Amino acid sequence: MSSDQLSVIFAALADPTRRAILAHLAKGEASVTELAKPFEMSLPAISKHLKVLERAGLITQSRKAQWRPCQIEAQPLKDAADWIEQYRQFWEESFDRLDDYLHELQTQEKQNEQ
């Protein structure tokens, strides 16, 4: 995956409306009208959000007669999660050092009380 595509994915995920749309689609396909219901915005505004998600590869839209169902695409989310996973070791080590430091402070505090 190119870093440019990863940037597009993260930019799409940066918006809370788009994240809410993805959460809805994680439960199954939905029409644009169904996706718009929880939001106080026009159908064209929702369509713009869907286009951003589609460009990022996070959703696909198909056509079934008059209905345009949207489906979530898992691979780009996995790509973003894999990229984030690279930094888990850093955070775990940082938390371990913080935990060690807190234990040291608690030990010193107990010694000072005695």
Question: What's the topology here?
Answer:
Elements lengths: L2 H11 L2 H10 L6 H5 L6 H13 L3 E3 L8 E3 L1 H12 L2 H26 L1
Helix pairs in contact: 1-4
Can you describe this structure?
This protein has 6 helices and 2 strands, in the order H-H-H-H-E-E-H-H. A hairpin with an 8-residue loop joins strand 1 (59-61) and strand 2 (70-72). The chain has helices at 3-13, 16-25, 32-36, 43-55, 74-85, 88-113; strands at residues 59-61, 70-72. A two-stranded antiparallel sheet has the order 1-2. The protein has a single domain, classed as Winged helix-like DNA-binding domain superfamily/Winged helix DNA-binding domain (Arc Repressor Mutant, subunit A, Orthogonal Bundle). It is mainly alpha-helical. It is elongated and about 80 Å long. Helices cover 68% and strands 5% of the residues.
Key words describing this protein structure:
single chain; 114 residues; mainly alpha; Arc Repressor Mutant, subunit A; two-stranded antiparallel ribbon; 6 helices; 2 strands; elongated
H/E topology pattern: HHHHEEHH
What is the level-2 CATH architecture name? Orthogonal Bundle
Q: Strand order across the biggest sheet?
A: 1-2
Number of helices: 6
As a percent range, the share of strand residues is: 5-15%
What is the average of the pLDDT values? 91
The main sheet comes to: 2 strands, antiparallel
User: What's the CATH class label?
Assistant: Mainly Alpha
Helix percentage? 55-70%
- What's the end-to-end separation, in Å? 59 Å
What ranges have pLDDT less than 50 throughout 5 or more consecutive residues? none
Per the principal axes of the C-alpha atoms, what is the gross shape? Answer: elongated
* CATH homology superfamily: Winged helix-like DNA-binding domain superfamily/Winged helix DNA-binding domain
What class would the helix/strand composition place it in? mainly alpha
Total separate domains: 1
As for the CATH topology, it is Arc Repressor Mutant, subunit A
| E-strand count | 2
Rg estimate, integer Å: 22 Å
